Prior knowledge:
Blueprint: H1 2-28, H2 32-54, H3 62-70, E1 81-90, E2 93-101, H4 104-115, H5 130-133, E3 143-148, E4 152-159, E5 168-175, E6 180-187
Antiparallel strand pairs: 1-2, 2-6, 3-4, 4-5, 5-6
Amino acid sequence: MGIFIIIGLVVITLLTGLTYLIYLVPKKLGYPKVGKYLAILVGLFFVWLTIITIFEDQLFSKKDARELLIEQDINLADKFEILENESMSAIGDYYHTFTLDISEKDRQIIINQIKNSPDFKGFRDKKEDLFRSADDRYEGNKLTKNYESDRLYVREYYQPNGQGYAPTYRKIEVDKKQSRLTFEEINE
């Protein structure tokens, strides 16, 4: 934890120095008001960036959830509630998950979408691990897998993003008994 405090202090020092430099250069050129306004704008930008980073989970909206689901060909027609939302990131890694309380009608539509997919595997069918079935982890086509477990219907998605970039793995789970949908995204 100590290393994160040191990194944070270094970043704050660099940003403060950059803001002061943006003020100082126009001031030395004879434009003190321009320097002052530029420094205020840059300072406000850094404050805004910090706020959206720290409060990312609290700023997550229904629109954001809907957009992530549409990317997986799942469209919620009825109203829904966000029950949980959590994201974590580290250098090179990102994890995001949320749980929604959806309508029974939407739940049935999603279950039918999953069950009617050409690659659907039933409860007793053998299922491959999506990570292991990718020939090349960084290049290639998007892979999807739809299957049923003992308590869930699941759609998995794997997208290579090119050499040097983390692949995207997403999983959508719909509970068999409750009107709950869980979305999980991992970039590592």
